[in-house]
Protein 1
Amino acid sequence: MARPRILVADDEVDLIAELKPLLERSGYDVSTAIDGRQALERVREIHPDLIILDVLMPYVDGREVLRRLREADDWTPVILLTQVGTPTERAMSLQEGADDYINKPFDPFELLARVQAVLRRTQQGRLPISSYRWLIADDLRVDRQGRHVWLSDEQLNLTARALGVLEYLMLHPGETVPRERLLDEVWGWSYAVETRAVDIRIAELRKALGDDADEPRFVETVVGQGYRFLIAVEGKQ
Amino acid sequence: MRGWRILVFVGLAAIPAALGLFVSLLLRHELLANFIYTGRYYVDLAWMVSAGSIILSVLCGMVLVPVWFSGHVKRMRSQIQADALEDRRRFIRRLDHEVKNPLTIILLSLSNLQNSPSLSREESSSLARASQQVQRLQKLVVDLRWLTELDARTTERSRIDLREVIRDAVQSACPEEVSPRIRVHYQEVPWPVGTVLGDRDLLVTALRNLLDNALKFTEDTGQVEVRASDDGRAVTLEVADTGIGIPAEEMSQVFEELYRGQNAKRISGSGMGLALVHRIVSLHHGSISVRSREGHGTVMTIRLPLASAD
């Protein structure tokens, strides 16, 4: 079986020099680009299976590369290397068509886990689930723009953070998401906050969804690791 | 708002002058007697009114000018503080931005080196130590950035029972202990402690930071107490310990980012904890103060406004 091809685009040559061997050791073929223009050329030449794209690059920045790819109906999975902090800014990365993002400085193993997860859940040529306004899993519907959740025909009353947790889990279906990542992504901060804060929101979510922790339908606790959304999720505009 | 205040000041100062003018007009049209007999002397009313007006104007000025000036100084001071905060935020954003790429590269390099098969045990442990320290640096940068970015946009606002906040903070400060080293006193009579409006997770974080500090700087045989009370207007949360205390000359700096007391340097910490608590309390429109005696203990007091009944 052919090794998946990954294109890494970042203007920091030292970062590329260190990231390339790490990805190669993990079983990927790696090509590189040092600015946005070169990244677009390389995509046309090698048709990568996944692109790791830095946001801040000369000539054409990462967001612009992403927009041009999506405008050209190219849905190659993209992981953005972002420098942004707040959840709103991060959410924008996904709305622009990225499949995932990771903040610099990142743990190398966390990046590898994201690469594997994105490759597993995305299918070539299809829109990433994060591009859709509606997330649907059976009778559960989440309106990401209006910030509303419906179960069957009943609208659920959730706090902003519980909704954020549900949205993040549904954007990563089948993937075990550690509590620390949820804190980082949904709260926007992980400073000295006990992961118990996540457990409290999960309890709120389960109560609203009528989900049983012992026999979960939607959110499963993976002991010692985190939480996982169990049902397949579809996107709708 | 400022324009209205000036108008009120001018209006008040003009009252004695207008009064004088009014009495002068009455005298001129002979609607008032020019002289008043006091029992011993005849007093010229025109002179008396003029002198009275001047004295009243001067008195008003003596009261109003300092009031206006103190308001002006207060506004100037808060403007200077806001500018300083914005400068600090801008600096931290730049620092954060400039440090991120080098930190990422160092983390990747260390990860690659750790995978080398020819490393000796000493080299491996050196790399592991370097990796730990880089992660510490990474956390510090992220926390510093978060502290400056933490504002009303990133916080929730709901009605919070402080009993739950205290329970969670105590549990997370002493997760393994069956009977934690922390004693909790919660006002029940004449009325129980009321609710506050705010972000539960942030308040737990604030209290937990105070408890972490209290436990860190107090011997195992010492005491740590959390006290919650309600005076009908605000809730007071106190964390008291019998620890090493804070030297008097350092008291004004304890809430600054990265500040570490002279007697605290041998105990690990980032110097971010109290700055964070201060920021969280400010976001909840509350106040925090500290009382301490070196060698005897410290009391940190948070006051938070009560949520309105409706």
Protein 2
Amino acid sequence: MASRSVFRSLWRASKLHPLPTRAPRCFSNSTRLAESPTQPSNHEKTTHFGFETVPEAEKESRVAGVFSNVAASYDTMNDFMSLGIHRLWKDHFVRSLNPGSSSTVDSPGWKMLDIAGGTGDIAFRLLDHATDINNSPSSTIIISDINPSMLAEGKKRSLATSYANSPRLSFLVANAEDLNTIESNSVDLYTVAFGIRNFTNKEKALREAYRVLKPGGVFACLEFSGVTNSLFDAVYKRWSFSAIPLIGQLVAGDRASYQYLVESIEKFPKQEEFRDMIKDAGFMVPGKGWEDLTGGIAAIHKGIKPVEKP
Amino acid sequence: MAIRTHLPRLRPLSKRIALPILRPYHSYDHPPPPGPFTPTESSILSAAIPHIPSHGFTHTTLSLGTKDAGYIDASTNLFPNGTFSLVHYHLYTQRLALAKHEHILSPALKEREKVPGVGWKVKALTWERLMANREIIHRWQEALAFMAQPSHMPTAISELSSLSDEIWFLSGDTSVDTSWYMKRASLSAIYAATELFMTTDKSPDFIDTREFLNRRFKDVQIVGGTMGNVAQWAGFTAHAGLNVLRSKGVRI
């Protein structure tokens, strides 16, 4: 009898104060972040910063903060978090793009633009593929990043490659939503790997990509996405929300940045949704529009800028 | 109750299933589905096809196709299957082109001439389809190698079965019994074998291929006829045996 009344009062209490819709996860401080005091006022435009809602004006500086913190330990961390698989993804991404390929011998080479390419991971791979596989020593690349400290890391690493101080490689600090130093219709290949989810306004960045690409040029994006198998998804979520911030704390001494990382992955649009965003920007998509990697943990999205028929 | 709770979950699932690009039947009432290629893909691939005799089923051919269609080298990314798209496009367009052979489908008959039968039309259409490979036959082994790759085999096999179905349909076959399957299976086998033979045929105007094809059709007729006779004999014997037993008073 007594137990029943206790139960009933508890039940009533739960009705009066509904439980927060998202239960807190072990080892994660997402609830703390979600309840943080920076709630924007109603009339400001807002966007996501992980699970937080922040004013658009603020996201850029906060993302900058995250990447300034992780720049030096970026690759070590990637290796720890993805168990080295991110290297396979990047290799496959570059191979599938086949940069520098040409049907003629005296080809002017591809003009490539690697957005959010700070550490040069993708850029060096693209140049290697163009040079070694497709024999295209005239292909060039611009590495662009909004964050000067990530770009400095890339410059440092470029010294160890054969492209150091060559005209094939240049660096540009720019916001991907406004690439005013790059001419319209001038780029063959626009790549963005694990970057677009940090953009404040993804639609605007896609429109800007459309502007700079030549007709027929390719927009290619490698990004975390939605795991398709629900059982694997449960395991993966457990890993990303519990282990990754912990590894971040142990290896890089920075939990908050990695907490943001996993939350931003969760918030990023899933495969179909992002494919439709690419289509809305005016691109044609090949096949179904994306390719899942490792069960959908990451996905490669591509878009081709159509040629206007005269 | 259980059903009611499950039904709303099922509905969005069924919505997600995309319309098939290939229809497994022919319809007189509905226009054909748009096919596996978008207009842009078709324009690039059709521009690439003329380059096959000199460059084969290669990335270079695809690249040249993009250039001729007004695109750039990078646009080859439009084809996730890469070079296999060339093979698939050839199979698809040549299958559809069969319907244009009016002189076979509805031949102009002179007086007292017999209307050609289904069998004659099947043979003629199969030959026309083989002749559509004439220009690229020296490169066709590359295409066969692509089709044999495990990731491309489902598309290749479904194109082969669509081809034999198309030929039987255009020839006016209306069978609705088990022979429907036998006809398509045997034609698929004949076509695949003859196509392979043709890749090594050096005779003028492919006379050897023509004879090979005729022998295969004859084989099928003999085998089919023998099978039919054996089946008839077995049926008759079983029936007779049953009746003998009945006449002896066995209640069956």
